[in-house]
Amino acid sequence: MESAQKLFHLYGFQQTSVDEILNDSGVTKSNFYYHFKSKEELGLEILDRRIKQYETDVLSQTLEKDLLSPSQKIDNFYKKVKTFHTDLGCAKGCPFGNLAIEMSGINENFRTKLADFFIRWEKSIQDCIEEGIKSGEFNNDISPQVMSQLILSHLEGAIMMVKTHRSIEPLTNGSETIIKILKAA
Predict the structure, then answer these.
(1) Per residue of the chain (185 residues), what is the pLDDT tens digit?
(2) Is there a domain that residue 23 lies in?
(3) Which of 7, 103, 119, 124 has the least C-beta neighbours within 10 A?
């Protein structure tokens, strides 16, 4: 699982063969097919695990953290995302965004799983924005639903630019601008 997750993130799902996963992990082909009927089944299992990990380690620790103000939640969320991509050398992109671009047009199982996750992610952002509007921290002139879509869309696009330019600057500049928009009175 770890080898496949690493290789899928680095090279993409379609560009990674079962043989490459087996070579990297040291697992035999018979053992692989005992646990998984196909590479797709393995990929969907990895996606499920990545989603659960992201929801636990990122969303619940930032945007959904009750003890933080809405501004702190957004700040911590962006810091966590920037740290993740900086630690990767700004080279691999978002595992979810990469997979969505690669697979959503050709595999309904991946598309629906990713769409459901992105909806939950947007909802976490939206709830934070709504809380910020109620507390007076955030601008109430912008729809929380539209703003959450903008934030997630910007994030995925900025991460693509981070990967392309090998620089965290697109994410940093964009997140600072979004925070200014949220806080504008």
Answers:
(1) 999 999 999 999 999 999 999 999 999 999 999 999 999 999 999 999 999 999 999 999 999 999 999 999 999 999 999 999 999 999 999 999 999 999 999 999 999 999 999 999 999 999 999 999 999 999 999 899 999 999 999 999 999 999 999 999 999 999 999 999 999 76
(2) no
(3) 119
CATH at 104: 1.10.357.10
The residue segments making up the domain with residue 168 are: 48-183
Q: Indicate left, alpha or beta for 144 from its phi (over 0: left) and psi (-120 to 50: alpha).
A: alpha
Residue 27 covered by a domain? no
45 contacts: CB under 8 Å, gap ≥ 6: 1, 36
The CA R_g of the chain, rounded to the nearest whole Å, is 18
CB 171 within 8 A of CB 155: yes
